[in-house]
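In response to a reviewer's request, we include the raw inputs and outputs for one of the modeled complexes. The two entities were modeled together in a single run.
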Amino acid sequence: MEEPVDTATAILASAAALLREHTFDDISYRALADEVGISERTVYRQYPTRAHLLAALSNWIEQTHFPLPPFVTVADFRAAVHDRFRAFDASPAYAFVGARASAISPTLDAEPAYITRAIEAMLDVSASTLNRRDRRRLAASLRYFSSAMFWARLRTGFDMDAGEICDAFDRAVGTMLARLLDATWAKP
Amino acid sequence: MTGPADVPALSGTQAAILAAYAELIEEVGSDDVSFRLVARRAGIAERTVFRNYPTRVDLLLATATWIEATVFAREESHSIFDIPLAIRDAMQRYDERPELAHVVAETAMRGVSGAAPSLGRPHLERLLDAEVPSLDEVQRRAVIVALCHLDSAATWVTFRREFGMDRRDIADAAAWAAEAVLDSIRDRVAL
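The model returned the following structure tokens for the whole complex.
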């Protein structure tokens, strides 16, 4: 791993390391301060509340461990989501942090996630004549079923592994895509 | 969750604690509320709160379950094909209580140490098995997981946060997706 460049990042890297042994709730600011070799007050200055810490940690994990492959077509999108679900299965503690962070009341002016913009861009190109309401319905549904939340719910509530979760994802988005007429899709 | 969920029976004191905490979450705009404040609001001693809920996480999870079962209780659906209507209604109610909706959504995403992520599952399974018994196991589970996922506070959170949707649009999009899930089984009901 690269050497962290600043205090804020060093704290996140330490928190991520502690996640191997502890749940997020068990990671105290005291422990983070000791790991990084700074005062507890400095941790608070960077992350005034645990919600701030959770949001920042999730962003950092997303960038370092779950980069999203680019996609243009629906087929590429599905493949990218499958890769993500498999990556979540390989690092469940990290994926649960992502799922939690996306459910909390936003701490900052939270920008929509990159995957949201990528899905909207995909539909702009692939289904350019689709009316605005159906496009938003579809984009929101694709986004929600490709989320860490979907993975977390199926893993915890249904005891499913990545392969089964990918299959459930394909079936769900398949029903949504099937609501559109064939003529909607741009011909390659 | 959809329809009546299994919620552990609470003592009067416990119900007062959970209601007080939920009230404070809405006032403060965060679940970061001290036990002392919860105790004062419930009109009991702080040690009584600790005796019932030894840690902050215990208190939060119990409160989230209580919120789902009371504030966000669903009207019972009598058909799986009524679920989109229940989802539409649920989204509108999450929108009226945003802080509580966030708490419910977040606690369900904590893995095994969190709240049950799909409280309405048994009810959905009963409806589906009675109305469309011919599905194979994989098809059945696909319908159940998709509806469980949609019938949750996380839907409201995601649609609002990622797409800036208002109450009406969230309810519309969530119900639309649920109808899509049902498209595959619409004409397969048992006689």
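As requested, we also summarize the result in words. The mean pLDDT of chain A is 92. Chain A touches chain B through 47 residues (CB under 8 Å).
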